[in-house]
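Problem 12. The chain below contains 575 residues. Write out its predicted structure in token notation.
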Amino acid sequence: MTYERRFNLLNSKFKELFFPTLLAAIAGNFAILADAFIVSAMLGPMNLSVIQSIEPLAQFINMIYWLIGFGGTILATSAKANFEDKKGNYIFTLSLVSIIIISVLIMVLGLLFPDSYLHILSNSPDLRPLIFEYLKYYLLAIPFICFFIVLAYFIKNDNFVQLQFRGFLMANVLNVVFDIIFIKYNMGISGAALAMVLGYIIATIYISTYFFSSKRTFKLIKIEFAKSMRCMLDICKTGFSSSSIALYQSVKLIIINSIILGVFTNVGLVAYNMCCNTLLLVSIFIFGTAQSILPIITVYYQEKDYNGVEYVARKSLKITVAFGIFFTLLFTIFPQSILYVFSVSNPSHIPTVMNAVRIFSLSLLAYSINFLYIFYLQSIQNMKLANITTLLNGLIFPVAFVFIFSIIGDENGIWFAFLVSEIATIIFIYLYSIYLNKKTNGEYSGLFLKKHHDENERILEYTIRGNADDAAGLSKEVREFISDEKKSVFVSLAIEEIVDYIIDINDELDWIDVIIRDNDEFAVISIKYSGIGYYPKEKPDLNSEHVDKLRDISDNIDHSQILGLNNTVITIEKK
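Solution.
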């Protein structure tokens, strides 16, 4: 019987991460919409303008925790995948310490110099007193929001997915509940901000129970200032591509708003605002998908499991395309649905806004693909291409095409410019993949830049069920595959006994992935599974002559536990 890889283990892990991450993204963004709805309904449109005025500061805070959160988790997860636990723990500790320092500094500066913040946020003297009432409490929430979200990113990668989801749900549900209570009892717009503070304080306390779990693999350790500066620079470089999305969005809004005002009256800005709201709604689902693949692809890419990386990337692409097609059809056929959600009721605005949303929605499928691709590039740590793609897609292409179409086209041309911008990004990605394939003589291929192993290296991949019969069948396959005849017999027997022991110590074990790479210099055997781990080097509690001999001839035996998966890697050099 031939045991080929069926990706059952990987598929199971993807589902485990995908749904809670998607639900957490929905919960967080739903609370934002609910906040706006509650404030508008209970306090009126003037107070809703306060929340909109705070948005630049909120976007800046997003940039900070995305920069450290995504950058830190990618580097820490990569370190764990490379069996560098101390480095992973150092990055984990540094990320938490730095986000606390930065967020507290932003809060303190805001409390000491509120007028400086108010002048940046609003030019209206009438609105500033209301903004201050909201701002003074919002500033108190910033350290809790930043710490909560950065910690949430780490614990998801440490297989505490449900804790992360429940934390997000708790923060946002409490925010909405306290909104209603505080506003109802005449606290006004300050009550909405206080609701956010209390919601995140309680959720932060809850999610911090992670530190008391014996199952966690990320540990807090001592950090050094000089080393921290170098490490912090790496974290920022790694997280910049995703965090810069908010930066480019802010700059793009300013430029495109001015272009639209030159073509339309104010109704053009209303229409563009509805297009942005449409994009926000779609982003919830795409962001959830992108966050799901980030830790998996980071781990598997570091382990040089390029087939596993491609499997997750293609699966994520299918989900993203499905979301993109659904929302494209929904808002193209029924553009009035987004108008209803955001209460556009002015009869003179409705025709223009519906037309804009209908045309703009044609870009949603391509936008979804590009958004996913940026996070994919970040996962494989191709930061140069990720930063270029983010800059082109987030700022240069949309601004350039909106400007060009505003000159050579009619009013509809501006909305078509967003479709052309997204397609231009896909064309750039496609042309770059062709260029890289030719430059590396086929080392990288395809849209996802799949990396291939050396031609002299043979790869064998198996998925077996957690039973003794499949372990015996695997042993035979290993014996026939390893080129060194002297070592192949006892190595195959040792692998069989290790797999049998793993099966014995786990009550339920569905799937085990075994990958073997064999070349003239070394053979590498990787055994990946969920459940209770077995480390042949540190826990030699399996009494076996073959396993003892395997330890003797192995140049390295490493074991890691990340994403809830155990990975034992045995390296045998050929002398």
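Discussion. The longest strand covers residues 522-530. Students who got a different answer should revisit the alignment rule from Section 12.3.
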